[in-house]
Amino acid sequence: QVQLVESGGGLVQPGASLRLACAASGDTFCISTMGWYRQGPGKERESVATITTTGTTYYHESVKGRFTISRDNHKNTVYLQMNSLKPEDTLVYYCHAEAVSVQAMCVPGDYWGQGTQVTVSS
Fold first, then answer.
1. Sorting pLDDT into bands at 50, 70 and 90, what band is 86?
2. Average pLDDT, the chain
3. DSSP-assigned letters across all residues of 4-64
């Protein structure tokens, strides 16, 4: 089992920055790709950024050049540095981890954090 806990959300003005963190615990050796997703009322959850174990990254077009995802495998933590925040970034951000079978000790599946609110308003 894997548990994910997000932190770092809050209320900021347009143009400001926030740094989100997601700490994984439990069977962390099962984790492969990790990422950040976001969701608004009445809309589907969308991928913001993902990062593999070896550091390959993906970014949604709307955040390229503004957001940076990074990962500390020793601390089992993934971060999302959010710069030049816009009102349209006002959403709930969720951490995600993909578990894979490792030496038959893991059950493949998806794990999600509880979500952290990001609000960008003047």
1. very high
2. 96
3. EEEE--EEE-TT--EEEEEEEEESGGGEEEEEEEEE-TTS--EEEEEE-TT--EEE-GGGT
